[in-house]
Amino acid sequence: MKSVDYDTWHLPVLLDRVIESLSIKPDGLYIDLTAGGGGHSAAILAGLGRGGRLLAADRDPEALAVCEQRLRGVETAAVYEVIRAAFSEFPAWLSEEYRGHVDGVLADLGASSHQLDDSGRGFSYLHDGPLDMRMDPGLKQSAADLIATVREEDLVALLRLYGEERYASSIAKSIVQRRREKPISTTGELADIVVCAVPPHARRDANPSRRTFQALRMAVNHEQEELAHLLQVLPDVMAPGGRVAVISFHSLEDRMVKQAMRRWESPCECPRDFPECICGKKPLGSSVHSKPITADESEREVNRRSRSAKLRVFEFREADV
Fold this sequence. Notes:
The chain is α/β, with parallel strands linked by helices. Helices cover 39% and strands 14% of the residues. The protein is built from 13 helices and 7 strands. The chain has a 7-stranded mixed sheet with strand order 3-2-1-4-5-7-6, sandwiched between helices. The chain is globular. The protein starts with 5 loop residues before the first helix and ends in a 5-residue tail after the last strand.
């Protein structure tokens, strides 16, 4: 594989805050479930020493190849392994000996800079290319397949839920009308349809296609379902004192993470008027920060993707003595 400018390929978001929040133990076990180009993974590996282990996973094989190349250049006594897998496959691939002993997990949600910038991946409305959007090329349905078959009412719901698109009805109607004439196969075609479907005043500031492309990407990659699975299984693999760090870029995802961490902190299912807990579910730990961490002004200037990033961190409680 040819040499890669890693920061150009993908600039990791909130890097220093992530490393600080994970509170890395030199001999600990850490998992980066969205290794991407390896920015966060390399920093985690650099903080590990003899006895330390990093498992770097991602469902994008192209990203994993770059990640592996980057990790080979890290000077450390720790060991690492690169795994191709989606959230929904976790923790099936994790060895039994590691379950209950994971000291830190990172999940950086959403698309990477490289995925958005590579026209051949079909993620961006700014670069014309095939309308694909699959993070894992092995997925059966591309974005073009989705909009060729989805019912208009379902497309409206999808755009409203994942894109928070106020003009969802108009955009969905325009997509359905165009596909009756011919298949919509490129990002440029879709972007043009969206621009024409919204009123003139909605075209003045940000590109009106952004929310539609975001919604389709989340649907194609089943991002909500993948995240829901991950949040359900994480408590079972964490070590006492272990930390989970999640970076989200969408209000729906941030809400899911926030609610999951609240459940971990207060799992009791007893009615509020009960004088004491009888369900037996004890707090699993607590959030490390009262509010999500966001990028400072200097990072927002260098990395536009960081502007909507929110980092939430949860620490699982130490075992009772």
